[in-house]
Write a structure and sequence with these properties.
With 220 residues, chain A is mostly helical. Chain A contains seven helices and no strands. In chain A, helix 4 packs antiparallel against helix 6. The mean pLDDT of chain A is 95. Chain B has 280 residues and is an alpha/beta fold. Chain B folds into two domains: 185 residues, Rossmann fold (3-Layer(aba) Sandwich), CATH 3.40.50.300; 71 residues, no CATH class. Helices cover 35% and strands 25% of the residues of chain B. Chain B contains eleven helices and ten strands. The chains are: A mainly alpha (220), B alpha/beta (280). At the A-B interface, helix 3 of A face helix 9 and helix 11 of B.
């Protein structure tokens, strides 16, 4: 057995799960800041991104070192490649959380539409569930569970479309217009987090089967 | 040669992961190799494609070198050794009763683990030796041409062209191995068998041999036995994995397929464990 290689692979997986947990906390923080229009919390979410970046660079550096020294093959190689992709997806998700926080700051004292805020909170909660499902299915090598992310993503996509309609309906109100435009971007960020979760699911399928495939085509 | 669709592949071919339709240089069917009563290699079926580098990997004692030697009938030089089954070169059975093993060894050359130039011969004579031994008469001018072409083919010409009369044993290990390759290709074989050709060489000489394999396969079919999995993954197009179930059991071919597949997504668990280094 290659004990050293296995230990390094285990460490990489643990770091990826840790990064995922940080991203979930960043998302929860950004949603709370959004709902409560809490500028201070938004600043904390923005600063917290450094923690995610530290984790991201750590995984990246360790993968570079492992590839150079251990020359993994077969499933070990696929695991390293999948973690490399997942690491990037998680880092991007955290960046979307930062964007939500920055948008929140821009309109922290503007009037909100309660219905729309609630819809965005629901979208965010679904995105949180997707991150957890993506990481759990990766850890358990559960392709069926990974594929279920597509159904979860369709719910977020549908919610995004509804949010767009709601924003259009309030756009005539000059008091809500700027806030509404910012929320259009928030909705888009949450929708993209869902897409990245699906991408992590695709890496799980690649890890298990050795074949990379998109779960859905570009029309979805 | 008739070309069949993938759906018409036999189970055996599918197990071997080989595409039907590509031209086989060597075809091995139901091959069993014995040392006396001991069955060393069991039931090998394999297609070796022309102008490709095929690597054979597996733990020590799994029979890959024995199998390699059966491809030019060197296996039977060991007293009591014998082969059962069929090995064809360009469709002709190399074990047929009317076939002279020497003629097979001319078509299927061998490069060994340790460089073995003839110690008392010059560099020139080392390369010319194979040709002189296999050809009745050859003019000096023709011999010069073949020696130069062979040394160039082995990427050694520029390093030795000014000292062709010096002893081959004065060369470095890597140069000696390339001299042996030049000697092997001087007789213009179809196939070059290489048994751990770089295991005694330093990393730079090893890479020189691997680069040479890439060049040689333009003109020759290469079969290379190696313990170095990185070398197999770098230097070969196709890889076959040999294994034994337990000590004293015969070696057998577990899986064969494109090198990229064997090293990224093999079909067999034993192959997966071996290429991942999860054995022992």
């Amino acid at each position: 057995m290659r004990v050293g290689l296995q230990e390094e692979l285990d460490q990489l997986e643990a770091s990826l799960q840790e990064e995922g947990e940080l991203v979930r906390r960043a998302l929860r923080g950004s949603l709370n800041a959004l709902g409560q229009q809490d500028e201070e919390l938004a600043d904390e979410v923005i600063a917290f991104d450094d923690e995610v970046d530290r984790c991201y660079f750590g995984i990246e550096t360790n993968i570079q070192s492992l590839l150079a020294r251990q020359a993994p093959a077969a499933q070990d190689l696929r695991l390293v490649l999948a973690i490399l992709h997942d690491n990037l997806h998680l880092e991007r998700m955290a960046d979307y959380c930062v964007t939500v926080a920055k948008l929140t700051k821009l309109v922290h004292d503007a009037p909100q539409d309660a219905t729309l805020t609630e819809a965005l909170e629901d979208m965010g909660t679904r995105a949180e569930e997707m991150i957890q499902a993506a990481l759990d299915s990766f850890a358990s090598r559960d392709v069926e569970s990974a594929e279920s992310l597509v159904d979860m993503d369709e719910l977020i996509d549908a919610a995004n479309r509804r949010v767009v309609h709601q924003i259009l309906s309030i756009s005539a109100d000059p008091d809500l217009r700027e806030w509404g435009l910012r929320m259009l971007l928030v909705s888009r960020c949450l929708e993209r987090i869902g897409d990245h979760a699906v991408d992590i699911g695709e890496q799980t399928a690649f890890l298990v089967s050795g074949q990379f495939r998109e779960f859905t085509d570009a029309s979805h | 040669m008739a070309t069949r669709t993938p759906s018409e592949q036999t189970n055996e071919e599918a197990q071997q992961g080989m595409e039907v339709g590509r031209e086989a240089c060597i075809e091995v069917s139901d091959l069993n190799l014995y040392y006396g009563s001991f069955l060393a290699v069991q039931d090998v079926n394999m297609r070796i494609e022309r102008f490709k580098a095929t690597a054979l990997i597996g733990a020590s004692g799994c029979g890959k070198s024995t199998f390699l030697r059966s491809l030019n009938r060197m296996h039977e030089l060991v007293p009591g050794a014998r082969a059962e089954g069929r090995v064809t070169l360009d469709g002709d059975d190399i074990y047929a009763a009317n076939i002279d093993p020497v003629s097979i060894r001319r078509k299927v050359g061998m490069v060994f683990q340790a460089p073995n130039p003839f110690p008392t011969m010059s560099i020139y004579d080392n390369v010319a030796a194979g040709l002189k031994l296999n050809t009745r008469r050859i003019k000096k001018g023709d011999l010069d041409t073949v020696v130069e072409r062979s040394l160039r083919g082995a990427n050694l010409w520029d390093e030795v062209k000014n000292r062709l009369g010096k002893s081959g044993s004065g060369l470095s290990g890597g140069q000696q191995q390339r001299l042996c390759i030049a000697r092997a290709i001087a007789v213009e074989p179809e196939v070059l068998l290489m048994d751990e050709p770089a295991s005694a060489l330093d990393p730079i000489s090893t890479l020189a041999i691997e680069d040479l394999v890439q060049e040689l396969k333009q003109d020759y079919t290469i079969v290379i036995v190696t313990h170095n999995m990185q070398q197999a993954s770098r230097a070969s197009d196709t890889t076959g994995f040999f294994n034994i179930e337990a000590a004293g059991e015969p070696g057998h071919l577990v899986e064969m397929g494109p090198t990229e597949k064997i090293f990224t997504n093999p079909d067999n668990k034993a192959t997966e464990d071996y290429v991942s280094g999860r054995f022992g």
